[in-house]
Amino acid sequence: MKFSHKGLLDISTLVGFLLLSCAAGYAQTQVRFVTWRADPQWVWDQAIADFEAQNPGIRVVREVGPHSSTEFHDLLTQKLKNRDPEVDVFFMDVIWPAEFAAAGWALPLERFFSRAEQKEFLEAAIQANTYQGQIFGVPVFIDAGLLYYRKDLLKKYGFSPPRTWPELVDQAKTILEKEKDPQLTGFSAQFKQYEGLVCNMMEYILSNGGSLWDEREYKSTLNLPKAKEAVRFVRDRMIGEISHRGVMAYQEPESLALFTQGRAIFHRNWPYAWEAANDPKKSKVSGRVGMEALPAFPGGKSVATLGGWQLGISRFSRKPDLAWKFVASMTGKESQRRIGLFTSRAPTRKQLYRDPEILKKNPQFESEFQTFLRAVPRPRTPVYIPLSNIMQRYFSSAVVVPNSDLDPLASLASRDMDRVLDLLREKGRP
Ligand code: GLC
Question: Where residue 403 falls among pLDDT bands split at 50, 70, 90?
């Protein structure tokens, strides 16, 4: 085939034009997703690959941040404060929607996420994403604190899973004494100074009849006797008697590793730990793990902190419709089903808790479901993070130093919290 000179020029111009418009279109069709790396990785990779396959020409670019909720919050809010238009979709801890909504960082999702569709999800997760009547996130998985224990060791010594914290300490002490294994400790949990510490401490304080703050009076309650008693118990008995001091540097992964290495009798963690603890490739105690609701103090009720992660859309995204398509796919029935089948993270769509295949794969969901219904949320307020920072500092210094005088530490923390809470009282809103 022969082309005239003019024809050739025309073709190269055309090709150039096509290439340019492709490049422009390509940049246009990226979805930038700020997230952290959850286990097992392939489940999340697959969800993204499915979305890309169903939406040819659209590419999801992941920016992976730290696992710690506290550190991830810093990274993400920095971008949002800068109104970074590159961020389209982000992963969001259950405690952030109020802050992100009040700051104008998260897009209200009413026009995409109808009330009828919201009803498909667990109510606590929807409530956590709702602020002043609007919804700001779609729940991906729900969390609640649970007690993991070594079934074999409890059985060997004739114990049933402990119902109270003092019983847990006594059982652990007996087992440690008799096992005489220098590698074994009684308890592992998350006592590092970060958000996980607040989740853990809240479970002790509330199961002793105390609270973090009075949400009607806007007053900290950490310096009241019930709260202090619980903190003292954690310091003197949970840490002082049955854990090794390493727990004070542990977040979820390190504390779980101790348990899966067979070096802890009891372990507090979220639902995802079930899969890791029972996978023979990752765990030395697979098949020897039991799970129960967390203990309470005598006379108190078991309390599980409500956790979980959501997808939100940045208000500064230039592609909110496309961002929604991605969010809808990641939280859709197919992706949620895969989470339910192949991870032990707990899906947020209610119907999956009646799905026989999922229950066969993860029978523990049946009892966990009750825990999710009862789980207690951390107070929902745009100033949660400053309040949490004060609590993190207090709890950390209170449990780390064995003989510290708790009274002045608790009063100081309460005073600082009251100053933040005053802002809310002035504004008259939660
Ligand atoms: C889990 C929970 C989250 C909590 C965090 C603390 O990721 O889902 O809500 O804040 O743990 O470490």
Answer: confident
Q: Cα separations (Å) of 368 from 122, 145, 274?
A: 13, 10, 11
Which atom, in ligand 1's list, is nearest to the CA of 68? 12
Provide the phi-psi class of 287: left if phi over 0, else alpha when psi is between -120 and 50, else beta.
left
How far apart are the C-alpha atoms of 213 and 223, rounded to whole Å? 10
Instruction: Calculate mean pLDDT across residues 11-38.
Output: 65
Q: How confident is the model at residue 5 (pLDDT cuts 50, 70, 90)?
A: very low
Can you tell me which atom of ligand 1 is nearest the CA of 190? 12
What pLDDT sits at residue 4? 43
DSSP state of 162: P
Site to substitute for ligand 1 among 193, 269, 270, most atoms within 8 A of C-beta: 270
Closest CA to 395 of 134, 191, 167, 254: 191
Report the relative pairing of strands 89-93 and 306-313 from DSSP bridges: antiparallel
Atom of ligand 1 nearest to the CA of 93: 9
Cα-only R_g, the chain: 24
Q: Tell me the CA–centroid distance for residue 376 and ligand 1, in Å.
A: 13
Q: How many whole angstroms from 306 Cα to the centroid of ligand 1?
A: 8
Point out the ligand 1 atom lying closest to the alpha carbon of residue 143. Answer: 8
What's the whole-model pTM score?
0.92
pLDDT tens digits, one per residue of 88-112: 999 999 999 999 999 999 999 999 9
Ligand 1 neighbours (beta carbon < 6 A): 69, 93-95, 143, 195-196, 199, 252, 270, 307-309
Model confidence at 13: pLDDT above 60: no
Question: Which residue has its alpha carbon closest to ligand 1 atom 5?
Answer: 196
| Mean of pLDDT values over 196-222 | 96
Closest ligand 1 atom to 94 CA: 9
Q: Where do the domains of the chain lie, and which CATH numbers do they carry?
A: 28-142+307-374 (3.40.190.10), 146-303+383-427 (3.40.190.10)
Q: Kindly report the CA angle at 64 between 389 and 73, in degrees rounded to 5?
A: 15
Tell the residue nearest (CA) to atom 2 of ligand 1. Answer: 307
pLDDT (tens digit per residue) in 116-130: 999 999 999 999 999
Average pLDDT over the chain, rounded to an integer:
93
Q: Per mean pLDDT, which range of 177-181, 192-196, 398-402 is the poorest?
A: 398-402
Report CA-CA distances (Å) from 306 to 37, 182, 377. Answer: 21, 35, 5
Ligand 1 pocket test target in 39, 67, 73, 93 with most atoms within 8 Å of CB? 93
